[in-house]
Design brief:
alpha/beta; 12 strands; extended
């Protein structure tokens, strides 16, 4: 079996891309405790299905994506304790930041992403997580977020119950008793011919609607999700966004922060500069431009009522080789 596929299927990695990073960091396998270890040189190397595997550096497997390692480093640097906090994760994607927040003790994480179907299944099934898809962070409002949460937590129930209790009593019901009637027989409750025909027409219409998929539906919360808190007010907002400047997103995020709430966002210089300032492959190679990016983000924070508490290097470079940063800020009371 391919090494990267083996690591995913054996539970060592959540995705093949994560498995490939583990292989780059060092993976070995053996067939028995007395056998020598074999090094995996490349992603396509074969690992027998019954092999024992050893990760030489398991850091990549701690979270669902490398984003979790980035956020972990930023939380350690700032000293921010997230235990018990309600958090908003903007640009949730596969869930690296969300995974980190939960492992640090966050009470709830509501995630927003413009894409669909990216969040890992392990987080989708976590009762502390709400995943809102197809929502652009730039256009985020308290109302749209709350509606998105309600949509994510609800389902449409088809009203397809047969109501046999209201079926009309057929006319001439006395004939069921062999035609035996006496003076005590009361036929006042027997349906009239038109009642029976109307009932038949109603049943036929429902049958057609069922066949066409147009039965009426009722919207309700999914089982076990009835009491999930979707108030659009958060103790902490985090985010890892691409292809958009944070200066376009921060104005939408600040109103969602509670007074004295914190913001910890990953800053990617390639999306904060002009095209002519970004080198080949989208990499910012001129370190002199980093202060320009920092000042631009600081100015935007100040304009939106955020006090910047720290500006720090991301502990891990971006996948494209860019140096990334974190801005740590607090909303005014």
């Amino acid at each position: 079996m391919r090494a990267d596929v083996f690591l995913v299927e054996a539970g060592h990695a959540a995705t093949r891309s994560q498995a490939q990073r583990l292989i780059a960091a060092g993976v070995e396998w053996r067939l028995s405790p007395l056998a020598p270890w074999n090094k995996v040189a490349k992603n396509g190397d074969d690992i027998p299905s019954v092999a024992e595997v050893k990760l030489l550096d398991g850091a990549e497997a701690k979270y669902l994506s490398r984003g979790g390692l980035k956020l972990e480093g930023a939380l350690q640097h700032t000293g921010l304790a997230v235990a018990g906090l309600r958090c908003l994760d903007v640009g949730q994607s596969t869930g690296g930041f969300t995974d980190c927040l939960l492992q640090q003790g966050a009470a709830q994480v509501i995630g927003v992403d413009v894409g669909h179907g990216q969040l890992h299944e392990r987080l989708k099934s976590d009762p502390r997580v709400v995943c809102v898809e197809g929502l652009n962070a730039r256009a985020l409002t308290a109302e749209s977020l709350q509606q998105g949460c309600d949509d994510a937590l609800s389902e449409e129930i088809v009203q397809d119950d047969e109501d046999n209790d209201t079926q009309p009593v057929a006319p001439y019901a006395w004939m069921r008793n062999g035609g035996q009637v006496d003076e005590a027989y009361d036929d006042s409750d027997d349906a009239k011919e038109q009642d029976v025909e109307a009932f038949k027409a109603e049943r036929a219409a429902k049958a057609r609607a069922r066949a066409e998929g147009t039965l009426p539906t009722e919207r309700r919360r999914k089982p076990g999700r009835e009491d999930v808190d979707i108030r659009p007010v958060f103790d902490l907002v985090t985010g890892d966004l691409s292809f958009i400047s944070l200066t376009l997103v921060l104005p939408a995020l600040v109103p969602l922060l509670a007074p004295q709430g914190h913001l910890l966002m990953l800053v990617k210089p390639q999306f904060e500069l002009q095209p002519g300032q970004v080198g080949k492959g989208g990499v910012v190679r001129d370190a002199a431009l980093y202060p320009v990016v920092e000042q631009r983000i600081r100015d935007c924070c100040a304009a939106n009522g955020l006090a910047v508490l720290a500006w720090l290097d991301s502990p891990i470079q971006g996948g494209d080789g860019n140096q990334e940063f974190f801005v740590f800020a607090r909303r005014a009371a």
